[in-house]
Amino acid sequence: MENEMMQKLFSDALGAGMSLLWSLAFLFIGLKLINFLRKIIRRALDRSSVDTGVVQFLDALVKIASYAVLVLALMARFGIQTTSFITLLGSAGVAIGLSLQGSLANFAGGILILIMKPFVVGDYIAACGCEGTVMEITLFATILHSADNRNIVLPNGTLSNSNITNYSTNETRRVDMTVDVAYNSDLKHARQVIEELLDQDEKILTNPAPVVAVNELGDSGIRILIRPWVNTPDYWEVKWRTLERVHDRLNEEGIEIPFPQMSIHMEKEEA
User: Fold this and answer.
1) Mean per-residue pLDDT for 208-226?
2) What is the rounded distance in angstroms from the CA atom of residue 271 to the CA atom of residue 10?
3) How far apart are CA 112 and CA 118, in angstroms?
4) Region for residue 132 given its phi and psi (left: phi exceeds 0; alpha: psi -120 to 50; beta: otherwise)
5) Is the Cα torsion angle 184, 187, 193, 194 positive or negative in sign?
6) Once rounded to an integer, what is the mean pLDDT over residues 137-150?
């Protein structure tokens, strides 16, 4: 009797051990297949010249769906009734969906961003009071990298309903600058000096032609508008260089750049 019990315990332990080993092997193979499937999908999307944001989004979606299928398959292997579990999971999904409306809105916003394409990975954008280069578009958020080396995470729901300025969409941009000159300055000469500087810069486009014009008669001086066109990647370089050259050249020509001034009249008290 005792030997039969020991044999039964040994047989049960051996069966449980083999089942566990097979389950671990199933899990290992499943994880490898998921990684292989994701690689195939990413390669296929890369070959079809799909936007990087779409590739990232679909990869995350396939990853979550594949893990869910793998978990259900493991549960079925252990004898757990997946039909009732799926029903329970569906009911729980409705409850969770109601409590996670913000997350669902972010998910829907991510889909809208990928469909409408107001920007793609690599674009420099400004939205929601932030700006930076788009590094990644995930299921629920878009990650920007700012010029001062910060990562900014913007929820897709908020982003899809916000005004978005995309600085990278067009090949060219207009650089808007102003400089004030004193009221006693020779305006024609000042404009000629600035136009010569713009003509000498190889990165400033000739079509459309740069605009140099009097824009405003200010409190302290006459404001001259400077608007050259450049290729988008050259925007900041041209702006910083032009402002510095205009300052130096106007000083060389003896054209005064005024600063805000205030005249104070003192009244003498009668004795």
Assistant:
1) 90
2) 120
3) 9
4) left
5) positive
6) 89
Compute how many other C-beta atoms are within 10 angstroms of the C-beta atom of residue 125: 23
Q: Work out the angle between the directed axes of helices 2-47 and 52-77 (0-180°, nearest 10).
A: 160
pLDDT at 196 over 90: yes
Instruction: Read off the tokens for 32.
Output: 């490898």
| Calpha distance 136→153 (Å, rounded) | 10
Decide: pTM greater than 0.70.
no
* Measured distance CA(88)–CA(94) in Å, rounded: 10
Rounded alpha-carbon distances, angstroms, from residue 223 to 117, 159, 178, 180, 199: 39, 37, 7, 4, 21
Tokens of 210: 């740069």
| Matching residue, tokens 């669902």 | 104
CA–CA dist 44, 41 (Å, integer): 5
Coil, strand, or helix at residue 213? Answer: strand
Q: Distance (Å, rounded) from C-alpha 38 to C-alpha 213?
A: 57
Question: Residue 123 CB: number of other CB atoms within 10 A?
Answer: 18
- Is residue 212 within 8 Å of 222, Cβ to Cβ? no
Query: Could you tell me where the beta strands, DSSP code E, fall in 110-150?
Result: 124-127, 130-137, 141-145
Helix, strand or coil for residue 65?
Answer: helix
Which secondary-structure segment (H or E) carries 244? helix 235-252
Closest CA to 109 of 145, 162, 65: 162
Structure-model confidence comparison of residues 18 and 181, the more confident one:
181
